[in-house]
Amino acid sequence: MMSDPVSQAPPATDSPPVPPAPAAGAFVGTRERVRGRAWPIRVLGWFSSVRSAGALIALLLAVIGGATAYETAYGRDVAAVVIYQSWWFAGIFVALAVNIFGAAAVRYPWR
């Protein structure tokens, strides 16, 4: 005799399923570390994720590549003023610094 598949389904709940706890020593991503914490820590966790670090490094790579082409065309002094000494170029490095600081801060207390 066949059983009814509806009666075998788990009961429906309104809460999302709880992910299983990671094994001891396993990598825990930034999003899992900051889940349920205060909003400043969650925002810092978003800025300190591996995904945002990769995006920042790719952005820096593209800007430096473009700056090299600009320097070839217009000279070192012009490229220094227009690109390397600009506020937005410094901002990329500030964003990388926040990323590195945040990666350490969301994992506090350290073992």
Oligomer: single chain
Low-confidence stretches: none
Could you give the distance between the termini? 57 Å
Secondary structure class reads mainly alpha
Describe the main β-sheet briefly: none
Helix content: 55-70%
Summed up, the helix count is 6
What is the N-to-C succession of helices and strands? Answer: HHHHHH
Strand content: under 5%
Textual characterization of the structure:
This protein is 64% helix and 0% strand. It has 111 residues and is an all-alpha fold. Helix 4 runs antiparallel to helix 5 (76-84) and helix 4 packs antiparallel against helix 6 (87-105).
Question: What is the fold's blueprint, element by element?
Answer:
Blueprint: H1 5-8, H2 30-34, H3 39-47, H4 50-74, H5 76-84, H6 87-105
Helix pairs in contact: 4-5, 4-6
What are the salient characteristics of this protein?
111 residues, mainly alpha, 6 helices, 0% strand, elongated
Please give a quick description of this structure.
With 111 residues, the protein is an all-alpha fold.
